[in-house]
């Protein structure tokens, strides 16, 4: 498989590739379960929990400030892709549209299809995170999480939830799907936080 689909990082890129990772020649698609099909007309995004309940439509998101992003992408299954180009809405910009209780320290990401993953609010609020609807200049395909996904470049990609449709703000940590099944609660690539050690 190494050589056809993956390669070792070149010396000039070695400082950008976390330990144990290989560079992908393409952009692999990894999904557990069925791929949801959601039209932009029916798509909606909710916030609740320790936040004022709100529902946003696709048009609401498109009316927010739009930004272009170039970010490296690291999957826990040991592949990385550098310089991925996206368009979407910064998490920090989105946070200006919602009211969150100061007691909220954690977030559970909810997605079409039932997938969930947890993230600390401090990790979510980082400047480099964004909600993506465009990949390499094209609308984000369902296989890659379209119509919209969260992208959290500093954590392993299972935290960059595909088909995202809501954020539940909580005071205590609630584990998501992969975290309940043995993955690390945070998932920092440079520390190789792949698994929890509980299984």
From TrEMBL:
The record's annotation in Pfam families points to: Oxidored_molyb
Q: Does the keyword Oxidoreductase apply?
A: yes
**InterPro entries documented for this protein:** OxRdtase_Mopterin-bd_dom, OxRdtase_Mopterin-bd_sf
Keyword match Lipid metabolism: no
EC number(s) from the headed UniProt entry: 1.8.5.-
Oxidoreductase molybdopterin-binding domain residues are 33-178
What SUPFAM superfamilies does UniProt report for this protein, alphabetically? Oxidoreductase molybdopterin-binding domain
Gene Ontology MF annotations? oxidoreductase activity
Q: Which UniProt keywords apply?
A: Oxidoreductase
Q: Would you indicate the residue range of the signal peptide?
A: none
What is the name of this protein?
Protein-methionine-sulfoxide reductase catalytic subunit MsrP
- Which organism is this entry from? Microcoleus asticus IPMA8
| Annotated gene | msrP_2
């Amino acid at each position: 498989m190494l050589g056809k689909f993956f390669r070792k990082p070149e010396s000039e890129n070695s400082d950008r590739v976390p330990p144990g990772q290989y560079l992908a020649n393409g952009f692999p698609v990894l999904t557990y379960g069925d791929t949801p099909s959601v039209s932009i007309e029916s798509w909606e995004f909710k916030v609740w929990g320790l936040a004022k309940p709100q529902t946003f439509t696709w048009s609401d998101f498109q009316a927010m400030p739009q930004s272009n992003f170039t970010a490296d992408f690291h999957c826990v299954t040991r592949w990385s892709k550098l310089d991925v180009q996206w368009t979407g809405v910064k998490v920090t910009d989105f946070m200006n549209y919602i009211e969150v209780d100061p007691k909220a320290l954690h977030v559970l990401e909810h997605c079409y299809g039932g997938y969930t993953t947890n993230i600390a609010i401090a990790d979510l609020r980082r400047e480099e995170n964004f909600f993506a609807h465009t990949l390499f200049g094209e609308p984000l395909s369902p296989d890659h999480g379209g119509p919209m996904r969260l992208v959290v470049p500093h954590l392993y990609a299972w935290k960059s939830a595909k088909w995202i449709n809501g954020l539940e703000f909580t005071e205590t940590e609630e584990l998501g799907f992969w975290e309940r099944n043995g993955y690390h609660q945070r998932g920092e690539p440079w520390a190789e936080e792949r698994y929890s050690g509980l299984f």
